[in-house]
UniProtKB/TrEMBL annotation:
GO molecular function annotation: ATP binding; ATP hydrolysis activity
Protein name: Multidrug ABC transporter ATP-binding protein
Keywords: ATP-binding, Nucleotide-binding, Transport
Residues annotated as domain ABC transporter: 5-234
Signal peptide: none
Family annotation (CDD domains): ABC_DR_subfamily_A
Length: 318
């Protein structure tokens, strides 16, 4: 499969002397979902900011669709959609005006049918005439996604897309990402939630202290992680585990307010996705998920060095 993004020996040192990236080389394949994992401050956001033309590299080269991001900035940038970690909308504009403007900034002809389709897919159509300031945090994040998609990019960057969002929006975003991939869009996801990478990614890269430690197919990587526990916080407590869920390794916890699922992450099929779907069929609503295992830094440094690491919790600012 050909590469749509090629990164060669990329380095970034800020004026303060901080070295955010140290000779990173990477290829992203067309039509894949690539998850870039690492703790906060590892270099994830700096890397995608350089690829998207928001930060100048200190050294190295980046090609997007064979266009150099420095010499052919406009062509390279036109292929990219970016959903940033921070909310960056004009709070006084309406949803519709914001999305229309984003399409126009890329020199695209008006396409009201496309805009309507994107807004409907993101459950924003009914709010199209509302000002951004009146929207919830989750809806504001949906607007960012609409802005990133409206110029029909070939590559979509999602920088910590579900940090601080509710479970419903997280599931909606997972479904949307799969639809985009099925339509040929390449997705690059940066996250420190390993559950997100396991749910969606085809390949996984691990970055720490500005260095790319590892790039592997998800199935290969998951076989190395060992046993994990997924704690599912329920909206309403239960007194016993439903018979329909008996086939899963579940235990009750927190006086019936939580289910704990133990599984072997070395298996290609962990059963997590099936379990969550079955919970919905049983009418068991959940409000939060926590996966207990080593931190990402501990796991991946340990994988390379062959060392035992202490077990910590992923997903809480690792």
């Amino acid at each position: 499969m050909s590469a749509i993004i090629t990164v060669r020996d990329l380095a970034k040192t800020y004026d303060s002397g901080f070295q955010a990236l140290k000779g990173v080389s990477l290829e992203i394949r067309r039509g894949e979902i690539f998850a870039l994992l690492g703790p906060n401050g590892a270099g994830k956001t700096t890397l995608i900011s350089i690829v998207c033309g928001l930060v100048n590299p200190s050294a190295g080269q980046v090609l997007v669709g064979e266009h150099d991001i420095v010499r052919h900035y406009r062509k390279a940038r036109s292929l990219i959609g970016l959903v940033p970690q921070e909310l960056t909308n004009n709070m006084f504009d309406t949803v519709l005006a914001t999305v229309r403007l984003s399409r126009g900034l890329f020199g695209k002809a008006p396409d009201e049918a496309l805009i309507e389709r994107i807004l409907r897919e993101l459950s924003l159509w009914d709010k199209r005439n509302e000002r951004i300031m009146a929207l919830s945090g989750g809806m504001k994040r949906r607007v960012l996604i609409a802005k990133a998609l409206v110029h029909e990019p070939q590559v979509l960057f999602l920088d910590e897309p579900t940090a601080g969002v509710d479970v419903e929006l997280r599931r909606d975003m997972w479904a949307m990402v799969r639809r985009l991939r099925d339509n040929g869009v390449t997705i690059i996801l940066t996250t420190h939630y390993i559950e997100e990478a396991e749910e969606m990614a085809d390949r996984i890269g691990v970055i720490n202290h500005g260095e790319l430690l590892l790039v592997e197919d998800k199935a290969t990587l998951m076989r190395k992680l060992g046993t994990r526990q997924l704690t599912i916080q329920l909206q309403q407590p239960i007194t016993e585990i439903p018979a329909a869920l008996a086939c899963h390794a579940l235990t009750l916890a927190d006086e019936g307010h939580a289910l704990v699922y133990t599984f072997d992450a070395k298996c290609e099929q962990t059963g997590v996705a099936d379990l969550l779907r079955q919970l919905e069929r049983e009418g068991l609503e959940f409000k939060d998920l926590h996966s207990s295992q080593s931190s990402l830094e501990d796991i991946f440094v340990g994988l390379l060095q062959g060392q035992e690491q202490p077990r910590l919790r992923v997903g809480e600012g690792a």
